[in-house]
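USER: For my understanding, would you kindly supply a protein sequence with its structure tokens?

ASSISTANT:
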Amino acid sequence: MLNYLYQKQDDNNASIHLLEHSLKSLKLILKTDPSNYSLIIQYNIHIGLAYQKTKDYLWANQHFQNALQLCLTHLPNDFKLLSTIYQSISNISLTII
């Protein structure tokens, strides 16, 4: 049981670290290269996944929705990326239910 608790704490710490890093990176890319939509979308997805791991589904969904809007507007033919975003949104919807 103790190993399980340590594993959960490590997972949560890793998610928080990923979240902090991704938020800083997104802020930086928005300042330095705001037309790099592919990278901005990827960071929004990473942030959404990190929020999902920490069970903050509202913020996770917000970042997935941001990624979706950017992708539909600027990269509408990137079906792999769209699929990833829709799957992430679906996973949140299933988790909340």
Observations:
- Residues 2-32 form the longest helix (31 residues).
- The chain has four helices and no strands.
